[in-house]
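Same chain as my last thread, 257 residues:
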Amino acid sequence: MDLRFDTSLINGYKNAAQIARILTEDWLARNMYCPICGEMSIRKAEPNAPVKDYVCEHCQSQYELKSKKEYSDRYITKVNDGVYRTMINRITSLDNPSFFFMHYDNYEVNNLIIVPKCFFVPDVIEKRKPLADNAQRAGWEGCNILLKQIPEFAKIPIIKNKEVIDSKDVCKEYNRVYSLQTQSFESRGWLFDVLSCVERLDSTFTLKQMYNFAEELKIKHPTNHNIEAKIRQQLQFLRDKGFLEFTSRGNYRKVGI
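reply #2:
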């Protein structure tokens, strides 16, 4: 995997945003494999496809790329994106893309992660203020992706500080994390919210500590009248998937979270 951009593509270009888009999109198309099935390459999607930049020909998985000129391997900031309503419509379907997030500097990729699609819920999408009435696109509402809201273990490294992770290890970890994909968007929301609570606790915790989040979860899920049972259900799911262990009655330990 060659980390350098092909700078011959930008001869004659002056706009910084356009230059960044050309270089990063070309790099990913030439260098990236499918982290889901391991196919050796992915292709660029058809022009103007909503919230979809790349497709794997083998498994038909969809991907979106977001890049930033930055050296750090810490992905904790907001990432600007396009139309808010378009993004919400895409991520609230089960056909939404997974996201690559790239950091680059000096015409070279230094960090790249992928976040599986099952971690994209409305809580990680922030609506930006509409453009002013005197703007060319008055009233247009963009959005930000709040990476800090996504669990750290879901940010799977592909390149870290210019070190390329073995593709087999990336695929293995992706599929471990992607095993949390659910069959409905409602289930995805519940799992995400319970995971967010689990992340705020120590490596070992109790069911009683989880119940302390009941009022917070009730605000997010006002139509559910048995919050504690739903918490237990999600903890059971996480245990079945190998992300939690029951150490004794009402006591849990995190595994790979």
